[in-house]
From TrEMBL:
Tree of life domain: Bacteria
CDD domains registered for this protein in UniProt: HTH_XRE
Annotated ranges, domain HTH cro/C1-type: 22-94
GO molecular function annotation: DNA binding
InterPro entries in the record: Cro/C1-type_HTH, Lambda_DNA-bd_dom_sf, MLTR_LBD
Regions annotated as coiled coil: none
Family annotation (Pfam families): HTH_31, MLTR_LBD
Protein name per its UniProtKB record: Helix-turn-helix domain-containing protein
Length: 291
């Protein structure tokens, strides 16, 4: 028992030392002139001084010095987040910093990419996939990009919808045309709710996810009913049936792709399950301008 406690203590010391090393190395790479920290006289050390970091983080220099020296001191999430901001850590680096401090990773702020335009390269990929309907969405079902084939498939002019409303679950609750494009809209909604619940388990107490859930709840009592079933599921490549604006039923295979393991953006490409489906897709694209 005593040996186990010693190992745990040594692990804590090792983490504290690695945390301190991480802070020191970042501090030495920052340019004081870029950060507007004017200095008089000769600069003898690279990067920022410890007192400059402490000032930027609005904490005491003694406390910051102990933290950078790797001493096993207790630190609050709020203070550690201030230090991360002061040293300009990105999201991945901040998460690593919190793990080294043996603290729960803080809930992420609402993802700014919800309203951030898709990169030109990603949009080109979507456009080149025509006539296959394709779009990119986040784990919270926000649509970040789409091609012309997808817009026609769902029968909704997504360009005319505000960015904050381009969300698959939200549209299925409030947009009649969107629901009409689904042969089995209630089943589709239940599946999305189950996926959303499973993903939300990874973001407990995250304000962005809480706000998104509340918006769904407020939009329709139907979502409350579905949510209360407490169903969970994972992402699968399945056959989905769509109803085109002319009444034609089109069965398409969903294909899910991710840009990287750390990116929650998911590209879904719909491909026909047979030659008849390919002909219907081609006819859909010919009714208006081609991609």
């Amino acid at each position: 028992m005593h040996g186990t406690l010693d190992i745990t203590h040594n692990q804590m010391l090792s983490r504290a030392q690695e945390l301190g090393e991480m802070l020191r190395r970042r501090r030495e790479t920052l340019d004081p002139q870029r950060l507007g920290l004017g200095r008089a006289g000769r600069i003898r050390t690279p990067g920022l001084r410890r007192e400059e970091v402490a000032s930027r983080a609005d904490i005491g220099i003694t406390w910051y010095t102990k933290l950078e020296q790797g001493r096993p001191i207790r630190v609050s999430p709020r203070v550690l987040l201030s230090v991360a901001h002061a040293l300009e850590f990105n999201e991945v680096e901040t998460e690593h910093l919190f793990r080294l401090a043996n603290l729960p990773v803080p809930p992420r702020l609402e993802n700014p990419r919800v309203c951030e335009p898709l990169t030109e390269a990603s949009q080109r990929i979507l456009d080149q996939l025509c006539p296959y309907p394709a779009f990119i969405q986040t784990k919270r079902y926000n649509i970040r990009g789409f091609n012309e084939a997808y817009r026609r498939l769902v029968g909704v002019d997504l360009d005319a919808i505000p960015l904050e409303d381009r969300n698959c679950i939200y549209l299925s609750l409030v947009n009649p045309a969107w629901r009409a494009s689904q042969v089995n809209p209630d089943e589709v909604l239940a599946g999305m709710a189950a996926l959303f619940r499973a993903s939300m388990a990874e973001h407990i107490d995250d304000p962005a996810w809480e706000r998104q859930l509340e918006r769904y709840m407020s939009a329709s009592d139907q979502f409350r009913i579905v949510w209360d079933r407490y169903q969970l599921k994972g992402i699968e490549n399945v056959v989905k049936r769509f109803r085109l604006t002319d009444g034609t039923i089109l069965a398409l295979q969903s294909n899910n792709w991710w840009a990287s393991p750390s990116n929650d953006d998911r590209m879904i490409v719909y491909t026909p399950v047979d030659e008849a489906g390919m002909e219907r897709l081609s006819a859909m694209m010919k009714r208006r301008r081609a991609c």
